[in-house]
Amino acid sequence: MGVFGNSAVEAAKALAKNNKPDPVKVWEASVARFSVSESSAKKGCPKNTFLSLLYAGKIKGLRFSAFWFSSTEREYALAACALLKEKPAYAARPTELWRIVCAACGKPNRNHQQEMDVVCALFNADMLNL
Q1: Are 51 and 69 in contact (CB under 8 A)?
Q2: Which of 49, 41, 43, 36 shows the shortest CA–CA distance to 8?
Q3: Alpha carbon distances (Å) from 63 to 19, 21, 26, 57, 118
Q4: Distance CA 23, CA 12 (A)
Q5: DSSP 8-state symbol, 62
Q6: Crossing angle of helices 72-86 and 115-124, rounded to 10°
Q7: What angle do CA 2, 102, 121 make, to 5 degrees?
């Protein structure tokens, strides 16, 4: 797992332990634990992927609502969850999963920004509701 996969798992665990935590602050603290890079701390795609899964009720044991939260990453994350449900082996191949997600969403296959690392790490930690 990379910085953002580790951060996603750590953030989910921290949110489960705290009473009424701020998911954005918990995400930022988790990223800071695994990276000292300022660019990592500011990277929006993995953060939005994590928050999308959280607010969609896809992270086991966590119930947060933010009906206002919408992002391109939400579409990708939910499509990845559906694909992982059908073919769990994709969790070991995030780049291939990304290519298939892009096709499923009708989007061009651009370089992924660790969105699938977040999804796959949570999946591999058995933390996703599929």
Answers
A1: yes
A2: 49
A3: 12, 12, 15, 6, 18
A4: 9
A5: -
A6: 40
A7: 25
Rounded distance between C-alpha atoms, residue 70 and residue 52, angstroms = 7
Residues 6+ apart with CB under 8 A from 99: 109
**Sign of the C-alpha dihedral computed for residues 6, 59, 74 and 82 taken in this order:** positive
Residue 51: predicted pLDDT:
94
- pLDDT score of 108: 87
Q: What is the pLDDT along the chain (130 residues), one digit of tens a residue?
A: 799 999 999 999 999 998 778 999 999 999 999 998 888 878 999 999 999 999 999 999 998 876 666 778 999 999 999 999 999 999 999 999 999 999 999 988 888 889 999 999 999 999 999 9
For residue 73, the SS3 value is helix
**17-26 long-range Cβ contacts below 8 angstroms, 24+ apart:** 23/51, 23/54, 23/64, 24/51
Q: How many CA atoms lie within 13 A of 53 on its CB side?
A: 33
